[in-house]
Amino acid sequence: MPRYRFGDYVLSPRRRLLVRGDAEQPLIPRYFDLLVFLIEQRHEAVHRRDIFDRVWNDVVVSDSALTQAIRTIRRTLDDDSREPKFIRTVSRHGYRFVFDGLIEEDENDNARWPAAPTEEPRVAPVPSAAEVTTGDQADRFEPLLHRLTDEAIDDEDKHEAAELLHQLGTDETLARLDRRPGHAEARAILRDARWDVPAAGPVPIAGSPDPLRTAAALVALRLRRAARIAAGRGLAAAIGGGAAGVFAGAVGGVLLASVPDATAPMAIAGVLAAIGGACGTIGGAGVGAGISIAEAVARSQRVAGLIAGAAIGGGLVGGLAQWLGHWTMTALFGVDVTIGGGLEGVALGAAAGLGFAIATRDAHEGLAAPRGGRRAVAVAWVATACGLAALVLTVAGRPMVGGTIHEIAQSSNGSRAALTSLGRLVGEPDFGPVSGALLGLGEGAMFGLGLALGLTRRRRG
């Protein structure tokens, strides 16, 4: 790998160091990768889409994440967006590294590099009109705290102020913030910004002056940023779950009509495909939305957040489907059959959240969307987790969609949708515990597969 000299800076991709003089200029890994990418592609303007594909290749993030990254890099390089020396914004396209005196040279193992930063990270100057003077030295905290708590300032400016305050000192910032007006919202922004500053300290919510309000402000902040992406992912998960349900229902219907001594017509495949598609779509929408919202909100406790979010989403839509299904069968057809939904949604959702969290445990920013082999691993994890959860539910007497259809058919005079013939395929005289368990396992795994394919789909263009 080469290294690059530009202005007062030396950047070594191999050592992952950005140095000015003898002092390291710290950047979080994503921002460092972005700077390297722009330098490597310095002969042309780099499209925003290409940046997302290269730097955020395993997650989906909002456009504001790139804007924030560029702003932080510019501040680190003492660059000015109005008169850029290093990074120029190309309107409606992306960015370009424009410093024309860059020197590319071979990495020299004997070259002198600082073992550790020899000075504190530099902080961009604050407008002197807002400075508060204490003794002979300007207090750099107060003007930034004013920006952070001013309701008239937008989120991006507040986020920048929070980053600068972290560089000055997180503990001192929190001590000075205390209970001043707007402290809860300011603390939420500080907690969110700490991920973008290498030297930032912790910003605890528990034990803060107003923890509930701070937590609510943090959730609202992250949801505003990721609302569009989370909605798109929920829709994709619904489509994936629906497609899996259609496939599973159609295959089950074909088997039901094709086995020896079958009484069901081939048309049953279309009916079961429609039922499976509806159930898969509803379940995928709930679980997918729960996972997406949890990913957008929870960064410190990601695994627990994904499990809880998916379980809540699955439980809500499952409970609604259970109520509607039971009311429909009782009121319209006079069939009183126990229909599952709520508990099954919680269990399948929690399993999907756990499988997805394990498979994407390295994703600490944005909504995970792995590619290639890593995507296949994520799909396998979610499908396996959902299949096992469905198996446990079935063994415990909580049938999945197929088992419920069988019970309804058994309670209805003249129904030809009973799954008795499927039980005979595994040596049972009727649709029994073995055939029910196998069917439940297959249904759960197929749902998890479709859900995960939808969740990990990246929008093109």
Helix content: 55-70%
Terminal CA distance: 31 Å
Shape designation: elongated
Instruction: Give the SSE order as H and E letters.
Output: EEEEHEHEHEEEEEHHHHHHHHEHHHH
Q: Which secondary-structure class do the elements indicate?
A: alpha+beta
Could you tell me the mean pLDDT? 86
Number of domains: 3
Largest beta-sheet characterization? 5 strands, antiparallel
Structure description:
- The strands form four sheets. A five-stranded antiparallel β-sheet has the order 4-3-2-1-9, covered by helices on one side. Strands 5-8-7 form a three-stranded antiparallel β-sheet.
- Mean pLDDT is 86; it is low at 116-137.
- It has three domains: 2-106, Arc Repressor Mutant, subunit A (Orthogonal Bundle); 128-209, no CATH class; 226-455, no CATH class.
- A hairpin with a 2-residue loop joins strand 1 and strand 2 (9-12).
- It has 461 residues and is an alpha+beta fold.
- Helix 4 packs antiparallel against helix 5.
- It contains 15 helices and twelve strands.
- It is 58% helix and 8% strand.
